[in-house]
Amino acid sequence: MRRWLKEKRVDNLPRASLADEQLDETVIAYIEQEAAKYLVWHENLVFKKVCVKGIPRKVLLRPEDADSRLHEQLFKLGDRVVYVKDSGAVPLDTKGTVVGVLDKQVEVVFDSAIMSGQDLGGRCSEFRGMSLPFHSLINLSVPQFVMSESGKAAPTKKHSAGHVSSKQSNRQPRPLQESTQNGSARPSGKSQSNRRSQQDPPRILKRSV
Questions:
Q1: What is the pLDDT of residues 69-106, one digit of tens each?
Q2: What pTM was computed for the model?
Q3: Region entry Disordered: which residue ranges (predicted)?
Q4: Which of 4, 110, 202, 205 is most buried by its number of CB atoms within 10 A?
Q5: For the chain, how are helix, strand and coil distributed in percent, rounded to 5?
Q6: E-assigned strands of the chain?
Q7: What is the pLDDT of residues 48-73, one digit of tens each?
């Protein structure tokens, strides 16, 4: 058995927890190819500079506040992310794809090579991958960081404007009622006249000669 394990190089495989999720080498290689195509397409774009004014300072994320504001994010395999810290081994605003979700970290393959990048145990190209904590990234595929002008997390709206529930849509309008002298309710004039026309038979008038 030991000889067979050495021949298959099982000991060289990276160890991972049963709860971890990771993509294999074939899928990661495909992601790197698509990232290279995206970079070529992105470099040929012509951008127009726009000055955006009137944005409150409290709704912007400062890199030094990322540790306390981004630690509750959730990630899945294939999510697009961006590095938001101005310190560390990864340059600010570097984008990549999640290829592994660990206990407190995510494995990211970046769109381009970085100086301190790794190969994630031979699963990606050199200088392309790295394991990073949750609070150093922003999930672009499933945005979860939304701040209000007061600096607190903005509440999510349960119903959109103009939403009508099923109970309200099934209700039928009731005829108006008028109160009599003794306090009892009676139908309005229109409904009373309609009821009389339905109950009384039609009359035929004879003309005398």
A1: 888 899 999 999 999 998 888 999 999 999 999 888 99
A2: 0.62
A3: 149-209
A4: 110
A5: 30, 15, 55
A6: 21-22, 80-83, 95-101, 105-110, 129-133, 137-139, 177-179, 185-187
A7: 989 988 888 878 888 888 888 888 89
